[in-house]
Design a protein that fits this description.
about 55% helix, about 130 residues, mainly alpha, globular, about 0% strand, single chain
Length: about 130
């Protein structure tokens, strides 16, 4: 993946330009789509993944951050980016078995931690398809 390209160029969907009636969330998502993906921050990725925008790109980028520090607070609470990935629709993971395998390996590593360290994510992780 060319990290100098924007999400708008890398994914195959067209969005209308925001106008005066657009919500702030829509404006924010559109603005993030126009950044080179290499410039997307973990906080930006949290927003994009939560709203399931360009997951074939954003989930991969988010997973890279989560693999380095799965319980880090990027936007709201410890493990928030991991939680966003865990909420991604199961059909996405079926379409991307390599990402599914990486997420499953990460969850296996986390399961060796004391539950208190990632207790908020345990129920979501139990429902993960991998």
């Amino acid at each position: 993946m060319d990290r100098d390209r924007t999400l708008a160029h890398l994914i195959d969907d067209d969005w209308l330009r925001p106008d005066a009636s657009s919500t702030q969330l829509y404006r924010d998502l559109c603005a993030l789509r126009d950044l080179p993906v290499g410039q997307l921050t973990p906080t930006s990725l949290h927003l994009l993944v939560t709203h399931q925008v360009g997951l074939d790109v954003t989930a991969l980028l988010a997973l890279e951050h989560v693999e380095r520090d799965p319980l880090r607070s990027f936007a709201l609470y410890p493990g928030d980016l991991l939680a966003a990935l865990l909420r991604v629709d199961h059909s996405f993971w079926s379409d991307y078995p390599q990402l599914l395998a990486r997420m499953s390996a990460l969850l296996d590593r986390l399961r060796t931690l004391p539950e208190g360290d990632w207790g908020l994510l345990v129920s979501a992780a139990e429902q993960f398809p991998g």
